[in-house]
Amino acid sequence: MSSIGSPTGAAPTDTGRAAATARDHLFNAGSLGRYRDVLARGVDRVARRVGEVDTPFTGVTPDQLAPLIGGIDLDRPLGDTDAALDELHDVWLRDAVWFHHPRYLAHLNCPVVIPALLGEAVLSAVNSSLDTWDQSTGATLMERRLIEWTAGRIGLGPTADGVFTSGGTQSNLQAMLLAREEAYRRAVGGAATRPDRPQVLSRLRVITSAAGHFSVQKAAKLLGLAADAVLTVPTDAARRMRADELARTIDNCHRDGQVVMAVVATAGTTDFGSIDPLPEIADICADAGVWMHVDAAYGCGLLVSPTRRHLLDGIERATSVTVDYHKSFFQPVSSSALLVRDGRALRHATWHADYLNPARAVEQGIPNQVDKSIQTTRRFDACKLWLTLRIMGPDAVGELFDQVVDLAAQAWQRLDADPRFEVAAPSQLSTVVFRYRPSGLAPDLADEANLHARDALAASGAALVAGTKVDGAHHLKLTLLNPETTVDDIAHVLDLIADHAAWYARTAAAELSCPVG
User: Fold this and answer.
1) What is the DSSP letter of 94?
2) Distance between CA 292 and CA 502 in Å, rounded?
3) CA gyration radius for the chain?
4) What is the mean pLDDT of the segment spanning 18-37?
5) How far apart are CA 224 and CA 219, in angstroms?
6) Does the keyword Lyase apply (predicted)?
7) DSSP for 310-335?
8) What is the DSSP letter of 275?
């Protein structure tokens, strides 16, 4: 017999009920009461924990958590929902990193909007798989409509297509796969005798900027390209790819008998939020006949910005584009997509299986998304974005993204005026790279002081910031994706950083000045 919530609002328990059979746990028409009850308890636990959170982190260490989690006997179930949720609290919820907190300023993790959480709950329960029509029906068409909508926002044209992915790394990998196959096809197209495939692949080169994402190098390795296949182009003072150096690099490749299979431009670098000069890069790629991929995993929020869409001018000329809705559309992980100007290029990811998507399905006009994806079983992540657009609308999402970009500009100005800190180039998006470096602090000591400050801040749990290297020197980074974060929050975190770094610098200086022995 299924349980329903108490009319008094007290959470019901499994205690006193007959032990549930395995089938009682299945979600179906006969277990709807249990479904409502159990999920309500989970939602209540999360809501209560979020209501209690006053810092983004507890400072817990792996050594503290590992024995607790390692000591759990997974072969002995608790048999009780509340007991399992109590345990979940102890091993995860209590010490989770909370991206919604205004002083979480570390990585490209955004707080999520409630319509997307609704979509997550719905899609998980229905559990559609987006590989074939006969597993997903309307979900297939909804994903295709969102791809069409995104391609329209980018301006890719009527032949564009794409597919949802697990994230920017997968999107970039698939883009490089398609570019590799197109480059190979062109390389052997006019040959009198078909050259050896490994020989052709060894000549392929990918060009990106020195500030581009590491997934480009990772994709090249996974795709079997040469160890030196990825060539990096220097950036200017704003950390944007230098178009003149790109043109020179392409010329050098041609001179050396190499084939440039793709140029990867970045619209929102992870560290600096910089956007490469897309129009100039598009001109160079067009002249050279080279595939132009734009990694807009971070900067895709500009597609719905009411004020900054022009920063993506030139993206409409790309051959392929990566977008991460779970970075700047405030969606839960995962929600990402790869878009291509010519949908026919997606055929390089197609493989027909008799049991799943036989070739005759294409002749019958059956819309199978597995024909476009490097995944087979795949979640209906598009549902989250669909409900977000239908409830909030794109302008509201763009307004939220504009707010964090505005906040980053204010943070940069504050840091630039603060004698305790050095600041890197202003971001076009919502990151701020800086370091503690008051006058007179030696470079080596500054490096160690900044590393200590970041670690000490995390250990306290009061705030989280990221770290990176700029020209070999250790820096800190604010990644601002929460519209609830204020300038006062940032000022408080900067004071904490300065206090930790100054303590370390004083202590280290004192130790150096002490006589040995």
Assistant:
1) G
2) 46
3) 26
4) 90
5) 9
6) yes
7) GGGTTGGG-SEEEEEHHHHS-PPS--
8) B
Strand order in the sheet with 320-324: 161-165, 336-340, 320-324, 292-296, 259-266, 204-209, 230-233
CB 105 within 8 A of CB 431: no
Unique residue bearing structure tokens 């980053």: 408
Show the tokens assigned to 441.
Answer: 């602090």
Please tell me the distance from the alpha carbon of residue 112 to that of residue 334, in angstroms, as a whole number: 12
Q: pTM of the full predicted structure?
A: 0.92
CB burial of 202-238 (b: ≥16 within 10 Å; e: otherwise) equals bbbbbbbbebbbebbbebbeebebeeebbbbbebbeb
- 356 burial class (0-12, 13-18, 19+ CB within 10 angstroms)? middle
What is the DSSP code string of 136-178? HTHHHHHHHHHHHHHHHHHT--TT-EEEEESSHHHHHHHHHHH
pLDDT of amino acid 509: 81
What is the percent of the chain where pLDDT is above 90? 90
Cα–Cα distance between 241 and 23 in angstroms, integer? 58
Can you tell me the distance from the alpha carbon of 457 to that of 505, in angstroms, rounded to the nearest whole number?
Answer: 15
Q: Do β-strands 230-233 and 204-209 pair in parallel, antiparallel, or remain unpaired?
A: parallel
**Coil, strand or helix at 206:** strand
**Where do we find the tokens 């949908």?**
343
More confident residue, 200 or 490: 490
Per DSSP, helices labelled H in 329-480 are 359-363, 382-391, 394-416, 443-460
Do 165 and 331 contact (CB within 8 A), yes or no?
Answer: no
Number of CB atoms found within 10 A of residue 310's CB: 8
Q: What is the pLDDT of residue 192?
A: 60
Q: Which residues of 9-36 are buried (b: 16+ CB within 10 A; e: fewer)?
A: eeebebeeeeeeeeeeeeeeeebeebee
Check if the beta carbon of residue 294 is closer than 8 Å to that of residue 278: yes
